[in-house]
Write a structure and sequence with these properties.
The complex is a heterodimer of chains A (about 190) and B (about 525). With about 190 residues, chain A is mainly alpha-helical. Chain A starts with a helix and ends in a 12-residue tail after the last helix. Chain A has helices at about 1-20, 25-35, 40-45, 55-65, 70-85, 90-100, 105-120, 125-180. Chain A has one domain (about 1-145): Tetratricopeptide repeat domain (Serine Threonine Protein Phosphatase 5, Tetratricopeptide repeat), CATH 1.25.40. The longest helix of chain A has about 55 residues, at about 125-180. Helix content of chain A is about 80%, strand content about 0%. Chain A contains 8 helices and no strands. By secondary structure, chain B is an alpha/beta fold. Helices cover about 55% and strands about 15% of the residues of chain B. Chain B has helices spanning about 5-35, 40-65, 70-100, 110-135, 135-145, 150-180, 185-205, 210-225, 300-305, 320-330, 345-355, 370-375, 400-410, 430-440, 480-490, 515-530, and strands at about 240-245, 250-255, 265-270, 280, 305-315, 335-340, 360-365, 380-385, 410-420, 445-450, 455-460, 495-500. In chain B, β1 and β2 (about 250-255) form a beta hairpin. The mean pLDDT of chain B is about 90. Classes of the chains: A mainly alpha (about 190), B alpha/beta (about 525). At the A-B interface, α3, α4, α5 and α8 of A face α2, α3, α4, α5 and α15 of B.
Chain lengths: ~190, ~525
């Protein structure tokens, strides 16, 4: 739940940018209107008519994100990135979702893709600086996530080694104790 | 010492060893629970390791029994087992924290739960259990030599005493020691019993060097009485503990979280990972996104009628569902709330810390969900199934076609059932299996809604009527509850209608692999998310 609260503030920014694009496509306007009325179902349906793959994915992302369906929102962002691999907004949103869901490898791949997109970007300095700031905010979190994944994998390997080694050793020791011929005959003295 | 007195002493020692073995085994799962939970996997690991340790102990005992003085070896082994058992509460935290990083979510920890709990069990519990396993052959040998009995006769007597001791240890641990004394003292009592047995043997057959060794180990037990405690995990800043207790079923802790503004109280079970059982905020009504309890309010609104609304909550916990329903039901609804909670201690904590309301219906504590539902006087407009065991598993006997048909028989015509399922989307194996089983029990179909901002799915079905979906007008209703809940449920990817076909095999009492499905759900969750 904590991660959800962290991510929430950022997405508002992206929604306002998507709303600005509503003026360019009637389907976007329809989706926006339905979304504002709380009819996310109609907003979702309206996205089907949005001509731009990137814009459609962006709107679908927003509908699902605001529905609390983070896995679905990530899926839509990834669909959009197939059509527009350098979309700053989709890259940011996908990375936020991926981080929140704790997907280390996916986050690393998105970070790398975003870095490349920023380096190739022809945006004006102000806009680019804004995305760079956002990148700088989220990129280190990927390292923390990867580190955590690696730590978990390493502990799992350690636990497996301890378990298999100890269990096999103990079993063999028991067999050895039972099978080994006694060095002395049983004593008869009172116990 | 006369032969008969010696015989009585040896058999008493055998009984104490049996009791201590069961105490260590049963309390072992509770000791590991804050890190690894109490799932079937953990239980299997603990039982398996104890059996392995006993095998080693029997082999060791068979070797030692050939030596000149088996009673001397027995006294030493018992003192060693006592010292080890006494320090288990203190050893558990550092070892378990080394094996399982603290910041993992449930799905991320799934793989570590199996191997980590096995490694921890081997390190913590194998040594004392092996030492205790060696006691039986040594007791038998001592008895046979002193009474000149047949091997079978001596062995049979020792096994009888040991098994009776195990029986006492089993019941005492679950119903007396753990609930009354807590986990640390349960181990300490077992250690003291073993030390007493060791000292009694020593007193009967004193030996110089041996006495020193036993007394040294005894000093270790004495030190443990002061220093060996299971330390609870540190709470983050802004979170404080209000209460904690050990029930016959689980470790319970009530914490208050003030980090997000409005104070929340959470009932944590076994402190396990990131899960909690009940939640409280000051006002009754909806709790907000991320809390599946809010979804229990929907059927009354969807039904669209005032008047009596009788609800049975199976897995009541500390009463969160009651408080949500009281604050978020339609105007004119006459609520009559009944509930079943298997752990009476949870109800006690609910009354003290969660304002568990009197609902006008029966509240059964200490009763299993399925038996409890059968007992509750129906019919009900709504049955809520919110029962979990081992923190993550829906109890198998509540997830079957037969159980859901029983629930249906308690409903009025058009009555509802709402089931909370922990799962990662509609393709999750647990969600899918339970949804198809529910559909089979309710006219062939049910509807699943993703709970916003959580990993819970709510399944709804009705007796003789259809569950509304966003495509139909009866899904939508006016008011703050509708505005808060309906938009998030309405996009097409957020709900699914399940229809069962004759080819689908619902979960049945005869075959309900829900624990296996749950394990798959956790293990595959990250893979499924990453694959998207």
């Amino acid at each position: 739940m904590n991660a959800w609260r962290v991510a929430e503030g950022v997405l508002v920014l992206c929604l306002s940018s998507a709303a600005a694009l509503a003026q360019q496509d009637p389907a976007v306007a329809e989706a926006n209107s339905a979304f504002e009325r709380g009819r996310y179902d109609l907003a979702w349906s309206a996205t089907e008519a949005i001509a731009s793959d990137e814009l459609r994915a962006s709107w679908r992302f927003h509908v699902l994100y605001h529905s609390g369906n983070l896995a679905g929102a990530l899926e839509e962002a990834l669909v959009g990135l197939r059509a527009a691999p350098d979309s700053q907004e989709l890259l940011q949103n996908a990375l936020i979702c991926s981080l929140t869901l704790g997907l280390g490898e996916r986050s690393a791949q998105l970070r790398s893709q975003w870095r490349g997109a920023l380096d190739r970007s022809t945006l004006l300095d102000d806009a680019k600086a804004g995305w760079e700031a956002s990148y700088a905010r989220y990129a280190p979190q990927v390292d923390a996530l990867l580190e955590r994944d690696e730590r978990a994998a390493s502990r799992a390997r350690g636990a497996r080694s301890i378990s298999l080694g100890a269990a096999a050793g103990v079993g063999l020791l028991a067999l050895f104790l039972v099978a080994r011929r006694r060095a002395h005959p049983p004593a008869q003295a009172a116990g | 010492m006369t032969d008969s007195a010696w015989r009585a002493l040896v058999l008493t020692v055998g009984a104490l060893c049996g009791a201590a073995t069961m105490t260590v085994e049963l309390a072992a799962v509770r000791l590991l629970a804050p890190w690894f939970g109490t799932s079937t996997t953990v239980w299997t690991n603990v039982i398996g390791v104890i059996l392995l340790a006993l095998a080693l102990g029997y082999a060791l005992g068979s070797r030692l029994s050939a030596r000149a003085n088996p009673a001397r070896d027995l006294a030493l082994l018992l003192a060693g087992a006592a010292a080890w058992a006494a320090w288990l509460p203190a050893l558990a935290r550092p070892l378990c924290e080394a094996l399982l990083p603290a910041d993992l979510a449930l799905d991320q920890a799934a793989n570590l739960t199996a191997w980590g709990s096995l490694a921890a069990t081997l390190c913590l519990f194998l040594p004392p259990a092996a030492l205790l396993g060696a006691a039986s052959p040594l007791c038998t040998e001592s008895l046979q030599r002193s009474t000149r009995a047949h091997a079978g006769s001596a062995g049979g007597a020792v096994m009888c005493a040991s098994t009776l001791g195990s029986l006492v240890g089993t019941f005492a641990t679950t119903h007396l020691l753990t609930p009354q004394l807590g986990l640390s003292w349960t181990f300490l009592v077992a250690a003291l019993a073993l030390l007493l047995a060791s000292l009694a043997l020593l007193a009967a057959r004193p030996r110089g060097l041996l006495s020193l060794a036993v007394l040294g180990l005894g000093a270790g037990v004495a030190a443990a009485l002061h220093g060996s405690r299971l330390e609870r995990s540190a709470l983050p800043e802004g979170v404080r503990e209000l209460a904690q207790s050990e029930s016959s079923y689980q470790s319970l802790r009530v914490v208050e979280d003030r980090r997000w503004g409005e104070p929340q109280r959470l009932l944590q079970v076994n402190e396990g990972l990131d899960s909690f059982q009940s939640v409280w905020v000051e006002r009754e009504g909806l709790l907000g996104p991320g809390f599946y309890y809010d979804m229990f309010a929907l059927p009354a609104w969807w039904s669209g009628r005032a008047g009596p609304w009788r609800v049975a909550v199976i897995g009541l916990g500390a009463g969160t569902a009651f408080r949500v329903l009281r604050g978020a039901s339609p105007p004119g609804t006459e609520l009559e709330l009944s509930g079943v909670e298997i752990d009476p201690e949870v109800l006690e904590l609910g009354r003290r810390w969660f304002d568990l309301p009197e609902g006008g219906g029966a509240v059964l504590g200490g009763v299993d969900g399925r038996a409890g539902l059968r007992t509750l006087p129906g019919p009900f407009e709504l049955v809520v199934l919110d029962a979990y065991q081992n923190q993550v598993e829906i109890p198998a006997h509540l997830a079957t076609l037969e159980a859901l048909r029983e629930a249906r028989s308690k409903l009025t015509e058009g009555g509802w059932i709402a089931i909370n399922v922990g799962g990662f989307g509609f393709d999750d194996p647990v969600v899918e299996a339970l949804a198809l089983t529910l559909a089979a029990a309710f006219d062939g179909e049910c509807v699943a809604y993703l709970t916003p901002r959580s990993r819970n799915v709510l399944l709804y079905a009705r007796a003789g009527a259809r569950v509304p979906t966003p495509e139909s007008a009866d899904f939508w209703f006016e008011g703050s509850v509708g505005a808060a809940l309906l938009p998030s449920l309405s996009p097409r990817p957020c709900w699914r209608r399940y229809a069962c076909t004759p080819e689908d095999a619902p979960l049945r009492d005869e075959h309900c692999p829900i624990e296996h499905l749950q394990q798959r759900s956790l293990e595959e969750a990250r893979e499924r998310l990453a694959r998207r």
